[in-house]
Design goal:
It is a single chain. With 345 residues, the chain is an alpha/beta fold. It has a single domain, classed as TIM Barrel. It is built from 14 helices and eight strands.
């Protein structure tokens, strides 16, 4: 398949084009067909335990693999009104976890409001942090704010060496990330019995699946402790989804068909049964509801007959909804599975 693209940092021209590429058979069974052989079709939500809020695409980094296509020039940012609708919806439920993501979510004006109001409701709050945002001048008190509210930090760090991290995230990002991790450690994050959780996210730099989560965690723990004096609680592996900038990378390097074949061949029924969309609702920056953050980036809202905007939130309907799928879903069901909380098996 030949696709002409402008540059590595410019995403495919439209989500329609991405979906066309993902849906092209190329000899691969459609994801829905694969599910039919497992008894899981149609894939349904079970119970929402994760209320994920994507507050926008503004970011202080421009990462080569970013499925959100985030960057400093993006202007899609959640309004205070939409954030208030999120809190109003959350009040109607007993959903235990609020998962705030972006972009760099901390740069959105509504970020601290969401943290504070969610904590008032007694919910556990997670911040998906790129680490370097903690060093931005305007965020000088951010680390202390997160610690004061006991926010769990899920920090993205592609590798424990500078070359691989900088190749994916930009020159100098590794050194800044280490500085940020030390700052968090000084506040108690990642330290035993502190109550401040610091977990890392690892995703491969190239067109391959992540290694076993336990093995790569041990490597990260040893390397970061010995060479940088950094501690953390856990490391989660995530499979790169064949969408947005990573899809463009696959096409530019003629790795798309090989990567998709790898995902399809590694399909795991147990992983499919435990996909994160079954226990999650994802709210977009403009209030649109999605089954997961990946569907959000492909502009695939929740299915027909279910609420599609946070203003119409109905927990019962959403708890029992049919999940919208496409071939990118092979990424979450390959091998040991992949979710926002790492391997699912």
């Amino acid at each position: 398949m030949l696709v002409t693209l402008k540059s590595r940092m410019n995403p495919l021209s439209s989500t329609d084009e991405q979906l066309r590429i993902l849906s092209a058979r190329n000899g691969f069974p459609a994801f829905e067909e694969k599910l039919h052989g497992t008894g899981l079709a149609p894939l349904r939500a079970t119970r929402i335990t994760n209320f994920q809020v994507n507050v926008g695409k503004l970011c202080n980094q421009t990462c080569a693999h970013c499925h959100v296509d985030a960057g400093p020039d993006r202007r899609e940012i959640m309004s205070r009104e939409t954030a208030e609708l999120c809190i109003r919806a959350l009040e109607q439920t007993d959903i235990p976890t609020v998962d705030i993501t972006g972009g760099a979510p901390e740069l959105a004006p509504c970020f601290r409001y969401l943290v504070e109001e969610s904590k008032k409701l007694g919910r556990h709050v997670m911040d998906r942090c790129n680490l370097t945002v903690l060093l931005v001048a305007s965020q000088a008190d951010l680390a202390e704010f997160l610690a004061r509210h006991q926010v769990e930090i899920i920090a993205s760090l592609p590798y424990f060496r500078a070359a691989q991290t900088d190749a994916q995230r930009g020159e100098g990002v590794f050194d800044k990330s280490i500085r940020a991790l030390r700052l968090l450690n000084d506040l108690g994050y990642g330290r035993e019995n502190s109550g401040l959780k610091l977990n890392l996210i690892y995703n491969p730099v190239g067109a391959f699946l992540p290694p076993k989560q336990e093995a790569i965690e041990q490597q990260f723990r040893r390397e970061l402790a010995q060479k940088h004096g950094v501690a953390f609680n856990h490391l989660y592996t995530m499979t790169n989804m064949p969408i947005s900038r990573f899809l463009e990378f696959l096409l530019n390097t003629n790795n798309y068909e090989g990567y998709m074949e790898r995902l399809v061949n590694a399909f795991n029924t147990t992983a499919a049964a435990g996909v994160m969309c079954r226990t999650m609702i994802s709210v977009g920056w403009n209030g649109t509801l999605y089954d997961c953050d990946f569907n959000q980036m492909l502009e695939l809202p929740t299915g027909d007959g279910t609420p599609r905007h946070i203003r119409d939130f109905d927990a019962k309907q959403l708890h029992e909804r049919v999940i919208v799928t496409n071939n990118h879903c092979y990424g979450c069901t390959a091998g040991a599975g992949s979710s926002c909380g790492g391997a699912t098996i």
